[in-house]
Structures are given as structure tokens and as C-alpha cells.
Amino acid sequence: MPALDLDKIKKDVVDSQIWRSVFRGGLWKDTPRDRAAHIIGNVWLHLHPVKVRPRALRWSYSWGMGGLSFALYLLLTLTGVALMFYYRPTIGLAYRDIKDLEFAVTLGQFLRNMHRWAAQAMVVAVIAHMVRVFLTGAYKKPREFNWGVGVLLLTLTLFLSFTGYLLPWDQLAIWAVTVGTNMAGATPFLGNEGPFGGLLGMRINNDVRFTLLGGTMVGENTLLRFYVLHCVAVPLLVGILLILHFWRVRKDSFSAAPCQAGEEKVDVWPHLVKREYVAAAACTIVMLFWSILQNAPLEVIANPNVTTNPSKAPWYFVGLQELLVYFDPWIAGVLMPGLIIMGLMAIPYIDTNPKGIGFYAWKERPFANAQFILGVIMWFVLIAIGYYFRGPNYAWYWPWESWFDIKPAPPPTWSVFGPKPDAILPLLLGVPVVGAAFAAAMLLPKLIQRELGGKMLMGGFLGLVAAGAAAGMLAHKIAAAQGAFLLFFLGLSFYFGFVLPQRHIRALDWPRYLVTMFLVVSTISVPLKMCARLTFNIKYLLTIPSISMNI
Amino acid sequence: MGYRKLFYASNALLLAGFAWAFLKDHNAEWKPYQSNFNRMTAGELDKRAAAEPDPQKAAALRVQAADWRRRPLEIKQIIVGGLDRYDRCITCHAGMDEYSNPTLKTPFAENPYKGHPKIDEALAKAHPFTKFGCTVCHQGQGLATTAEAAHGWVKHWERPMLKGTHIQASCVKCHGDFETLRGAEAAALGKKVFERQGCQGCHAINGVGGAVSVDLGDIADKPLERIAGYNFKRVRIDGKELPEESWNIQNWILGHLTNDPAEVTPNDPMARYNAEPIAPSAMPDFRQEISRREADAVTAYLSGLTKEELIPSRWYVPGPRPREPRFADAAAHGRYVFRKYGCQGCHGLDAKVGRRRFNALGPGQNKLADGATEEALMAEMEKGLEPTLPDVVGTYTHEELVKKIENGVPLAAMDLFHPKGPVPAMYMPPWKDKISKAELDDLSTWLLSIAKKDDSGF
Amino acid sequence: METMSEPINPVSAAAPAPALKPAAPAAAMTRGDFLWAGWSMLAAFFAASAAAGARFLFPNVIYEPSQKFNAGPAAGYDLGVSTKWLNEQRVWIVRTPSGFYALWARCTHLGCTPNWWGDQNRFKCPCHGSNYTMEGDVIAGPAPKPLWRAKVDLAPTGDLIVDKSQLECIPGKRELPPYFVAHAA
């Protein structure tokens, strides 16, 4: 028997017309030219450059989160398409089909778990990717536009997750979506419950919420709409934006870090490709084992007349739900998310600091990093409060408290400025006072054109607050916990709202300065309002009911 | 070269993880049950073949046995078209699969292999399993293929399998004439006890009856979410606390008859959690008058009161029109009227002694001052009783009494023993539109006939 | 396996036939084997996923009526063709002096439902004019095969159980159980 010449067979196969017509480049010779040819000749790989700077390959630099987000997107597409074979989006069938997946379809439960958990992991990955890009200054010129695309992709990721949340048609689904979509009804001008909505003739059956739901309540049309959005419309949009995003990343070079003298680039194949593969595989493995060990939740079939207690949004929106405790729906549900998205997109255009591109620049960008991290931490603190500290009737339960313990009813709230009898001070005084305070907070840091000593300033302010709190305590007007709260929240606001801007951005040009300060003051007024509610039961600082202006 | 090793390791883990996922899915809980059943049935056939003297018959039995051994394992289900039910119970309970085992009898004694026990010929003929499925009568989760989930002993499934006599609730669901049915004796007894104790005086059923408490016409559909979880912590059945998977409407009903309802639903009489004090459940404690067996019967009856949309009218058998019995004299009829409308629910069987009520000032109770202590308040509340009618009706004329029953005693007209006492106090609803004039007259006649005579010369 | 304890050339023990391939450097061989293992595990993973995907597409439960049905007591049928189950189950129950068989009412030409013409003692298909005898044999028209007979059983309760998932039309086989139930009239 003649010896099998494997090498010859391999060469014949690779040189055959069929093979050559599919794969370009011929037999793998592992030369630099060959590696480049593989990248260029392959439609999937040519989103990569041929060579990449070694600094961009470091895990500690990139965290691999962008790639993982995409890997999870692919995993979600695969599992999602599989699930579509057994799912029918109608009220009579949806819940039963999910039960069928759980009990009767081969690997049905596993695929559903995988889809559920991968969706949540993708939200985390996309947020982490954004944090990394911010911290390494990778949104700065010329990448401003791609950062904006990224913000849109983050929004769409959340929207995808949200639309998918309804599809099992259980109590968890219907109530999360009911609360979420009711916020749309509070949109100014376009929602029937929003400010000025009545002015434009908005009713429950012709406003923006009605359009989204296809009805006045979450029902048959909503399920079909969310199904189409979830399976077709949004993934398509995400795909288009992804192409744009990747293409820009490739065109603007893979790392934002400026070229150093004598830095030699390395081949993308295999150095980047193997890292991508290992990361994607590791992520898939985690999803695999997670899905084997933990089942996706499925509650009682949806009942539009019975609300579960407590009823919570998907975890990534629980922060918003928590904000709804303190603010009116149109502020917490429409204005704030809008401001967050617009503010994020505005960042590259208002941050003119040319330093700190391509590395973790704590020293070079103290202001930007501090404000951004404050925002991210606030978001996750809100999520943690909503998720772990809220029990039946959305009352405050510590994690170690049983939900079967009954909590006393919350004390009555009061307002500072506004019409009687809820408010203690008149509206006419409130508007100028609050307006002036806001203007002062916006303008003061720039008006003082000399750098003040930060430590002295901070110490002085805290001392003042402490003295005030002590006086209040001595007069038995406030309790010790309230004093501590005041000290913490006022100190935090003073530091981020005055000390930091005064030190770092007083030289910024007026338009950019004003936009920046508007975002900063808006951000810090959120914990201030929370402090006011949690410690002093203040419902509104200023309430003008006639135009639904309550803050 | 670290990445090469990572490449191997990750591929190995991918393969292993996937294999695990597939095996976990493949080794479904129901499979051993079905394969055991097939194997055991084949074994029985082989045994019969060995004992069979006729070689031809023995060979036929062996062929059958081989056929059972070869049967593929599959999820079997009964589709109950008109009721939108899909019951997979026969996947494990293979002996009850009417398609492959029309007699429904198996030689095995243990579950899930045994045949349908105590099967009543007439019952089974009237409800062929292939047409009615299993969950229409038994409840549980027909779609499930794991034991816990299928029997409904899991969270988020609110209709677990009905246990013991509670299954007769399913007769009540469709048969308006269930009281005459053989096999629905417990449910019939439940209805009798319900009416004997005067439950309908406070709990209307589909609008028929008093309006003091909730209408029980769809009590079986009450979502668990509407029964606050912490209340279930107080429900004791046979002296035992209930595990969370037994929190269901059957135990909620039963719990009201095997506990003092005021302990099951204590509410907030001291205003600890609310601005206003809220009285405990005013439902009387029936434990002295209702046995455990009767409590189960009442549960079976009430658990069948559903407005389940799944039951179309063509499945529903209407009951007979109620017939009014005839009586010799007005007083006898009056006594019947007293029972018919459930007056005994508050005023006691045959109006002998009034039952408990909260915060309405009655005989033997003191009006308390504003600053009364918690203990004093509780002690006073405990003493509260509905009027014992023979003691009080004597001061009324016939017309006054009729008027009083017609209009009831509204909350506002009641004397509270303490301004900050718990609300709502028990009150008497107006019966004007519910009891006919002729009935009222006779009721009044009977009440006046049992009134204690005043010897003071009135 | 004494070579295992031999410290000089441990790799050669792992190579399958070192004598045949003396030129191949031992270390490169193992690395190659290893690489091969890595790729084949990946290939196995994809193959397993594809196989599971294919299996996934076979539903374990279907929302179709059961192919088996209870046609009621055998004693309730008269001699001849009964159209009692035609609308509900698309089956004719035929009783002969010696027993029962069940014909599936599906023309073997292109699947229309023939009609039973009792006066002419034949089934006639409205689509292309195929004619069948009471036994199901073709006597006219384009039909290539006799009508299918379904499996039929006599339950201990005396009921006929018809199973349409098992069919037979070959003369000689179709007259035997399980496609025929002996039952003297």
C-alpha cells in the first residue's frame, strides 16, 4: 500500500479551482505577505487593518469589550432566530409557546436561557465598552462621530432588550413594559399626560404612547409590534450602525494612542484575530455554563388587571424606575434619558482638552474623568437601590429584611415653593429664587477667574454645613442621620458642581462652558433631590402645576 | 505560547459545555418513567406468555411484548380543543393514556405507572379522557413535563392539582346541578354547610346574597397577588404552617375555616402602619360549628366557583330552578327566611346568640375616652358582639322591625365605642331589594315570636 | 509500558510509529497532533451544534389531532361501508361478514377525498375520476394504487381503535392483522 502523501493531497485541494474560487491566497505560507492577503482577501476579516500597534492589543487597554459586545450580538442573533421557530406573538399563544420551549422542545429551555442571559451580558459589555472608550479619550477628534454612533448603539441595545422583555407574555413582561411605555405618555407636547399635551389635543388614543403600543394598553397589537421591532426592525438598524461603527474604527486606526517613535506594528493575523477568537470563545463558554445552571424567569401568564408587588423594570432600567420615585414621569422618564443620550453625544464636542488620548489619563483629564465616573456610579447606585433595596409597595427594605414584614406607610410629603396648601412658600418667590440659584450654580465657577484653593474651599464649605447641621440638631429640628446626609450630599454637590469646574473649566469658551455646566448641574441636582426626599420628605422644591413643571 | 493553549482549552470547554447542555436536555425527567412503564408492561406480557398453554397465543403475547420494548419514547399529549388545554400528564402516567390503553387499567400499583384509580364507569364514559384531558378535573400544569411543575407545586403556577375531595370543585365548575350528582357529595355538602352557617348573608355569590364582604362568584380565580403573602404566613392547616408552594386559593379558603379569620387577617387595629386603625377580619370564627371534613367540603364547593373564560357555555350544565318549600304558618316560614338569607352568619344559628363584631358599641361595652390605652382598646374590641335578636327585637313593633331590616344599619348611624377605634365596624346592610315584602313580614313575625317577653308590664 | 520510565526520549513513546517516520522531529509531531486536536474539537463543537440545530427543528409535540381514534363499539356497525367517521377522521369503517377494516379516505392519485356511492358499490374520486371497489382496489381512472387501509384493533372494551399512522395497501398483507380485525357478524 503506497504511503498517503497528506501534503500532496492538501496542495491539490487548495490549488483546485473550487477552493481557489472561494478562498484567495492559496496554500498558507505564513509570510507577512500571506497574512496581509488573508486579511484583505476575506470579507469578514478585512474590517481589520493589516497591521496594528501592539499597544492596542493589550487587554488592560481595550478590555476587549467592543469585540465581546459584537460576539454577544452574534450569539443573540443565532439563539434568537432559533427561538423564532417555536414562538408565535399572539396573546393566546405566546405564553404557551414559551412553556413549550421550556418543557417540550429539544434544547428549548437552554436556548431561551442563553438568549436571556446573553442579552443582559450584552448590556453590561456595551456599557463597559463605553466607559473604556471614555477613559482612554478615544472619542476625541477625529472620532467624535463614531462616539455618537456608539451612543446610539447603546440606546438601541437597551431598546432591543426592552422589546424582548415583553415577548414571554408573563406578569414580569407586561408590567415592566406597561411602566416603561407609560413614560412615553408623559412626553411633553406628544403625550396625553405630558406638559402641554392637552394643548395639542393629545388624548389616550392618539398620542405617542398609543402609537408605540398600538392601543391604549399593552395588548395584542403591542405584542406584535414589539415582536417586529425586536426581531426585525431594531436588529436591522443595529446592523447598519454596526457596519458604520466598525468601518470608522478601522479608518481611524484601531487605537487612539498616538504613534510613538520606533513603534513597530504587528500583523493583525494572527495577533489580533487570535485574541478575538479566545475572547469570543471564553464569552460563549460563560454563557453556555450560565444557561445550563440558571433558568430564565417565567412568571404567571400576563394579567392586565393584577400588578405583581413589587413590580420592577428590567435591571438596567431600574435606575430610571428609582428616579421616577423622586421626579415626575416626564422629567425622569423622558427629559433625563433624553439629556443622558444627548449629553453623551455632546461630550466629544464640548471636551476641548487635547491631552490624554489613547491611555488612562487620570492626571491629564481630571475634570472629564471625575464627572463621567460620577455619572456612571450614580446610574449603578440607582440600579442597586431599585433592585436590592425596594420591596413590596416599592417601600425601602434592607436586603436582610423579610419582605413579609409590613412597613409603615410613608410619611406625608411637602413642597417648598408652589401653590398652597402643599407648599410652604409662595410660587412668586420660588421662581426667581430657584432660577437665581440655578444661574449662580451655572455661572459662578467661570465668573471667579482666579483659582481658589480647593482644599480650603472644600473644608470651609463642609465646616459651614456641619455647623448648620449641628445647630439644627441642637434645636431638635433635624436628626443626626439627616445631618450626615446633608453633609454628604451637599459636600458632593459642592465638590463636583463648584470646586472642580472652578479649577478646571473656567477658561473654557462660553458656549461650551454653558453646555458643560448645564449637564453638570443637572447631574448633581439628582442626588440633591433624592437627599431632599429621603431625609426631609420634600416632594417638590418648586411646583407649577399649571404647566406640570415640578422639580 | 499562551494563546495556543487557550485555543485548545476554550475549544475543549465549548465542546464539553455543549455536550453537557445537550445531555441535560436529553435526560429529561419523564423519560425513565415512560421507559420503565414500557419495560414493565413487556415484562407482564412475557409472564403471561410463559403461563399461556396455547403456543399460538403465547407467541402473539411475545410479539406484543417485543412491540412494547421497541416503542419510542415520546411526549404524549391530549389536546382538548374546546377548552384550550394541552395535557401531557400521560407522558409519565402512561397507563392512563386512553389511546394506547383503552381500559385504563394496569397491573401496577405505584405511581406513575398505575391505571386510573377508582374509576367510575359512568363518570369515565361521560368524560372520555381523550376528549376532556386531565387538568379539566385535576388542575395542575398540563404543559409541564417535570413532576413538580406538572403537579403545580411550583411558584408562578396558581392552579396546583386539587387534593382529596377538593377535586369535586371541578364538578361545580360545569355542573349547575352538581348537588344531584353521584361523586360530588363533598361539594354538595359544602354548599349545604355554606348555607347552614349563613355565609351568604355577607358573601354574595354572583350577586345573590349580602354585600358585606367579597362576592365569591369567582373566588377560584382570585390571583395569589391579591392575597397578600404575609397573610399566608398566619394560615395554619391542621396546626401546621404552609410551605410556600402550598400557597393557593384552596388553602386560603380552608384557612378561613380552620383558623380564626381575625388572626389570619389581623389588619392594623392599632394604626401601626396606617394613619387610620383598620379592624381585623370581621368574619366569625366558625371552628366550633364546622368540622374539618365540612371545612374541606366548603373548600371543594367554593373552589369550583369560577368565571374561567375557558369554559364555553356548551360545556356548562345548568342547574334546576330553586323551589321554595311551603310552610304551615308565617312564623315557620319566617324562620326559613332567616336561614335562607344567611342572617345566622352574624346573628347566630336560629338567632340564639350574636357573633363577634368590632368597634360598634353594644351591650356590655364601654365608651372609651380619647386617650385610652392599647390594652383597653383591644379588650373592649374583644367584647363586641352583634345583637342577640331575642333580647332586642322585643322593643320593636312589627312595622318598625320590617323597616329596620329593609334599611339596615348604616355605618354612620352606629355608635362607636372609641373615636379612634378600628374601621370599618361591622354593619347591617339594607335588605330592601333582596328580601321580598311577604318574606319580610313572615321574618318579622318569627323574630317577634322568639323575642324575650318583658315582664315589666309593657 | 517500560518506555514510560525511560527519561531519554519520552516523546517517541507518544508518537504512533516512530520507526516508520524517523525524519519527523518528535517535538514538532506532538505539537502538530495537539493543534490537530484543538481544531478537531472546534470542528466537533460546530458539528454538534449543527446536529443539535437539526434536532431542534424536529418538534417533540405537534398540535395535530391524534392519528389514533376510538371508532366506538364494533357491534354498532352494519355490514358494508360506514361513513360515520368521514368528516371527523377521514376514514371509512368497512364491515364484512368476517370482520372489520378501515379505509383511509384519500385517493392514492393526488390526495382528494373520494365519495362512497352505495348504489354502485364503489368509491369515486371527484378530482380525476378514479374508481375503487369496496376493498379499495382501483377499477377505473388514473389511481396507481389501491386505497390505504389503516391499522385497526379491537379493544377489550369492544371498541374499534383505528390508527392512521400505520397504513397498508398491498393485497395479501392488507387482509391480515393489524389491518384487519376478525369479528364474526
Explained architecture:
The complex is a heterotrimer of chains A (551), B (458) and C (185). With 551 residues, chain A is mainly α. Chain A has helices spanning 6-15, 17-22, 32-41, 59-62, 65-84, 94-103, 108-135, 144-166, 171-182, 208-213, 220-251, 268-293, 315-326, 329-350, 366-388, 427-447, 454-474, 480-504, 510-536, and strands at residues 51-52, 266-267, 415-417, 423-425, 543-544, 549-550. Chain A has 3 domains: 6-47, no CATH class; 66-256 and 263-304 and 318-388, Cytochrome Bc1 Complex, Chain C (Up-down Bundle), CATH 1.20.810.10; 411-550, no CATH class. Chain A has a two-stranded antiparallel ribbon. A two-stranded parallel ribbon of chain A has the order 3-4. With 458 residues, chain B is an all-alpha fold. In chain B, strand 3 and strand 4 form a beta hairpin. In chain B, helix 2 runs antiparallel to helix 3 (55-70). The radius of gyration of chain B is 30 Å and the shape is elongated. Chain C contains 3 helices and 11 strands.
Summary of the model, kept short:
Chain A has 551 residues and is mostly helical. Chain A has helices at 6-15, 17-22, 32-41, 59-62, 65-84, 94-103, 108-135, 144-166, 171-182, 208-213, 220-251, 268-293, 315-326, 329-350, 366-388, 427-447, 454-474, 480-504, 510-536, and strands at residues 51-52, 266-267, 415-417, 423-425, 543-544, 549-550.
Keywords summarizing the entry:
heterotrimer; B: 458 residues; mainly alpha; Cytochrome Bc1 Complex, Chain D, domain 2; 3 domains; two-stranded antiparallel ribbon; 4 strands; C: 185 residues; alpha+beta; Rieske Iron-sulfur Protein; 2 domains; 7-stranded antiparallel beta sheet; 4-stranded antiparallel beta sheet; elongated; disordered N terminus
* CATH fold-type name of the largest domain in chain A: Cytochrome Bc1 Complex, Chain C
Largest interface: A-B, 40 and 37 residues
Q: What is the CATH architecture descriptor of the largest domain in chain B?
A: Orthogonal Bundle
C-alpha termini separation of chain B: 113 Å
How many domains of chain B?
A: 3
Distance between the termini of chain A: 90 Å
**What's the total helix number of chain B?**
19
**Uncertain stretches of 5 or more adjacent residues of chain B:** none
Shape of chain B: elongated
Oligomer: heterotrimer
Q: How much helix, percentage-wise, in residues of chain A?
A: 55-70%
Read across the widest sheet of chain B, the strand sequence of neighbours is 1-2
CATH architecture of the largest domain in chain A: Up-down Bundle
